[in-house]
Design a protein that fits this description.
rod-shaped, 90 residues, mainly alpha, 2 helices
């Protein structure tokens, strides 16, 4: 392997590691948004004021939307890795 091809291979491996790290972070973000949504739903059940309860439910829905976006970003990264021929994409 020439120096140029070795450097290219090393750069590719670094990029794959970064992409795998991105998948992990996006999945963590999704889990955090889901947990926040669950907590907001619980709080909405205990809210005394109907307006407050509705606001909490809306915030919970927004958190679930963000969780979905984070999962979509992770799926996009997996797709990029697969397109590059990486077998283990998490």
């Amino acid at each position: 392997m020439t120096d140029r091809s070795a450097r290219g291979e090393q750069a590719f491996e670094r990029a794959v590691r970064r992409e795998r790290d991105a998948i992990t972070l996006h999945e963590r973000a999704a889990a955090l948004h889901d947990a926040t949504a669950d907590r907001l739903d619980e709080e909405s059940l205990a809210a005394i004021d109907a307006t407050d309860a509705e606001g909490l439910r809306e915030r919970a829905a927004a958190e679930r939307h963000l969780a979905g976006l984070a999962r979509a970003r992770a799926a996009g990264v997996r797709a990029r890795l697969t397109a590059e021929g990486v077998d283990d994409v998490g």
